[in-house]
Amino acid sequence: MDPGTAAGTDTAASGGPVTGTLRGLGVGPGRAAGRVFRMAGPPPLPAPVRGRDPGRERREALRALAAVASELEARAAAASDPAASAILEAQSFIAADPGLLESVEGNAAAGMDAAHAVDAACAGYREALLAVGGLIAERAADLDDIRNRAVAEVLGLPVPGVPDPGHPFVLVADDLAPADTAGLDTGTVLALVTERGGPTSHTAILARALGLPAVVSCPGATRIGEGTWVSVDGTTGEVRTGIGEEEAAEIRRRATADRRRRAASGGPGRTADGHPVELLLNIGSAADLRPEVEAEGVGLFRTEFLFLDRREAPGFDEQVAAYEEVFRAFPGGKVVVRTLDAGSDKPLPFLGAGREPNPALGVRGLRVARGRPAVLDTQLDAIAEAARMSGAEPWVMAPMVSTVAEADDFAARARARGLTRVGAMIEVPAAALRADRLLERLDFLSLGTNDLSQYAFAADRQHGELADLLDPWQPGLLRLVSECARAGRAAGKPIGVCGEAAADPLLAPVLVGLGVTSLSMSAPSVAPVRDALALRSLERCRNDARTALEADDPARARQAVAANGPS
């Protein structure tokens, strides 16, 4: 069955409760079971009220938005996960955006009451974001949350939020706002299921950071009856209703046993017959490094978290300190630093970039250096200085490399500063198809499967209706991975995957079978992937890879590999 379809006694067509088995995209590996409880809907907007004092309504609307911005900023400061903090901080900037506030003032001056002034301003701003398209359109979901919070503030209503039934439960929602996801109590919320969202949505990113089983883009999920017992498989994307309390308890018991066993296991990644596979971490700063997680290094150090939502670029000394802290955490270990991946969904105010008709196809990643080379040069200088001070030998790679000429230029800049291990992110199909020529200039390649999917299938990463095209099991995507791995074998150079495909315990062995030499992922995914590799020989991985490549669609690829079993 294709992702995004429901099976069993689905009564979606009649609008009644959905039963049976639903399928979405698994974005947070693991299994869980419990009763379903849904997020409350947005606050109802009362009938417009005319004749009120425009000045008072203006002040009340602006006060509400200021309160929302302040709350989001406080949540960002309190968040323990850097990814969550960055997302919440960006959302607070939207709530305080001068353009949004100006629109609110205009609406109040035109006679709207405060609640409708906020609602109309957010609706107009939302349409503008959607019109930009690409990853920028994802901010529309953030704006919906800001609107709901501000309207509730104006009306004196409770802010829609996570339910509290008094016992552990499976949280189901149309979608989740960053402020809701970042503050989830993982002792109470067993799993997440949303109707919207994709593999790189905020819900997916934060669910993986929290280690929660999660399924997104799951049609019919919000029509599962409140209190219904369900099982959630965040690896396969399956949500099954109709289970009983005893079966749910058994699923939870097994999941707990699996977590304990994985916590006790460790060591380097390898297949059942001893073939080594580096298991690495994706991080945004040293705060992401967890001492209890046994990883062999860092496969993706996202340096853009140091730059996000700043009016001025971080200075040389600030960058040196941030990089050195990570290098010292892995003395003698592998740390792959990705240079600034700005643009598209990560606009940086200090760059002064103009509005682009399609940011995902515009000036992002390495392309920023075309107009602002000093930004890249300063960053490379800081990485080299941090390496000198820590005694580390970092690996450095550029995002969005598309041509041999770009690889040449980046390699020359990096090596001029004494950085000897230089590579590129493969996110553009043209680069994947020229992997052999790139490896004549570079020392390694790392595949960002999220963006590679987006560009290979011409499907926006945040477009929920296109989530099936972004499924990392797409045979076309796996073919591109295979081409890069083939080039790596011929050149005797390493090929890694640092997209979320690496975090899927069923897909990770397939990637190894294709010839990938390292897998980089969020910390909670390391142990499940290590276990999956340990159960399979290299030959079984290669057989599974051939099976997946020969499939006609991602659902059949996943099902065929799962049917083979681990050994």
TrEMBL record:
InterPro entries, sorted: PEP-util_enz_mobile_dom, PEP-utilizing_PTS_enzyme, PEP_util_AS, PEP_util_C, PEP_util_CS, Phosphohistidine_dom_sf, PTS_EI, PTS_EI-like
Catalytic activity: L-histidyl-[protein] + phosphoenolpyruvate = N(pros)-phospho-L-histidyl-[protein] + pyruvate
Molecular-function GO terms, alphabetical: kinase activity; metal ion binding; phosphoenolpyruvate-protein phosphotransferase activity
Gene Ontology annotations for the cellular component aspect, listed alphabetically: cytoplasm
Biased composition (Low complexity): 1-16
UniProt keyword list: Cytoplasm, Kinase, Magnesium, Metal-binding, Phosphotransferase system, Sugar transport, Transferase, Transport
Chain segments carrying region Disordered: 1-56, 252-275
Active site: H202 (tele-phosphohistidine intermediate), C498 (proton donor)
Residue stretches making up the PEP-utilising enzyme mobile domain: 169-237
Cofactor(s) of this protein: Mg(2+)
SUPFAM superfamilies, sorted: Enzyme I of the PEP:sugar phosphotransferase system HPr-binding (sub)domain (SSF47831), Phosphoenolpyruvate/pyruvate domain (SSF51621), Phosphohistidine domain (SSF52009)
Subcellular localization: Cytoplasm
Binding site for Mg(2+): E427, D451
Task of the protein: General (non sugar-specific) component of the phosphoenolpyruvate-dependent sugar phosphotransferase system (sugar PTS). This major carbohydrate active-transport system catalyzes the phosphorylation of incoming sugar substrates concomitantly with their translocation across the cell membrane. Enzyme I transfers the phosphoryl group from phosphoenolpyruvate (PEP) to the phosphoryl carrier protein (HPr).
NCBIfam families xrefs: PTS_I_fam (TIGR01417)
Similarity comment: family membership: Belongs to the PEP-utilizing enzyme family.
Protein name from the UniProt record: Phosphoenolpyruvate-protein phosphotransferase
Species in which this protein is naturally found: Streptosporangium sandarakinum
